Structure formats: structure tokens, C-alpha cells
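Key result, reporting period 2: structure in, sequence out.
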């Protein structure tokens, strides 16, 4: 019951918390789109497909939903942090830096689950871009938060607890 209550908590959907200027996420998102576009021109990366050879994959949806969830927490902590986007970026960059290290350490345990190493454009540019998109979505439509949390939980549970391959749907 507490889990359901935490997902649909009315205080997290207090619309006044989500309204504030400026909109640096739009500028940052456009910069990342530019970098991805330039990278696409000079590499053999695909737009959609397996994470080892494409910019976007099935986990991009999880990054957007996680961006929504983490952004809502960052927005609620904005008295602690100058701008919630900074906190989100700090967490996203920290995760993307830690992720290959974690994959290397746990490789022998979950080698089949990983299905290969992410393309650098996917990991370094598009994953943070998806999280920033999640920030923009929750900032402009906070009522989506419960659905993003539910999607994140189901997606992670499905891929981690049930499926044998992180790229099962590709």
C-alpha cells in the first residue's frame, strides 16, 4: 500500500513546484541534438537498433522515464540545489561514468544479460539527452509522474528479474 501511495502522492504533483524560469533544459537539449547530429554524420551509427550500434534503443524509453522520476525529486529538492537540472545532470553523468565500470566488475555474472557495450553516442550523448527530455516533460506536465514511475518499475523488473537479455526486444 505504501508503494502505491508513494507513486500517487498528491504533494509530488503540486503544480506550483514545477513552474519556474529559465528554461536551460531546452538549450541543453538542442546542444545535445546538434552533437548527436554531427556525430551521426561522421560515424556508422544507426538511429534505432541494438545498443552496440545505434543511438536509440529500447532503454531510451527507460532513460526518459527515469529522467521524469529523478527530475521530480530534483525539483522537490531545488532549495538544496541551485537548479534541478544541475542535480539531474550530475546524477546522469555520474551514472553514465559508473555504468561501464559496473559492467566490467560484474561482467562474469551478467555477461549474457548485457548483450554488448553501448555505442559511445548512445551512452555519452543520447542517454543524457533522454533524461533531459524527461526533465522537460515532467516540468511541463507533472501529472505524468505516476505513470513514468510505474513504467520505470515495470520496465526494470521485466528486464532485470524476468528476461535473460537486456536487449531482448531488439
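The corresponding designed sequence is given below.
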Amino acid at each position: 500500500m505504501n508503494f502505491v501511495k508513494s507513486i500517487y502522492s498528491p504533494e509530488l504533483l503540486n503544480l506550483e513546484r514545477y513552474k519556474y524560469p529559465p528554461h536551460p533544459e531546452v538549450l541543453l537539449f538542442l546542444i545535445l541534438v546538434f552533437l548527436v547530429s554531427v556525430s551521426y554524420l561522421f560515424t556508422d551509427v544507426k538511429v534505432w537498433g541494438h545498443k552496440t550500434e545505434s543511438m536509440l534503443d529500447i532503454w531510451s524509453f527507460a532513460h526518459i522515464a527515469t529522467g521524469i522520476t529523478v527530475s521530480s525529486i530534483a525539483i522537490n529538492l531545488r532549495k538544496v540545489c541551485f537548479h534541478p537540472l544541475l542535480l539531474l545532470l550530475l546524477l546522469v553523468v555520474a551514472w553514465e561514468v559508473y555504468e561501464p565500470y559496473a559492467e566490467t566488475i560484474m561482467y562474469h555474472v551478467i555477461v549474457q544479460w548485457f548483450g554488448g557495450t553501448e555505442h559511445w553516442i548512445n551512452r555519452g550523448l543520447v542517454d543524457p539527452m533522454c533524461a533531459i527530455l524527461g526533465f522537460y516533460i515532467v516540468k511541463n506536465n507533472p501529472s505524468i509522474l505516476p505513470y513514468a514511475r510505474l513504467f520505470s518499475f515495470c520496465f526494470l523488473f521485466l528486464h532485470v528479474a524476468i528476461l535473460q537479455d537486456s536487449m531482448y526486444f531488439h
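The chain has one domain: 50-170. Residues 113 and 163 are 8 Å apart (CA to CA). This case is discussed further under Risks and Mitigation.
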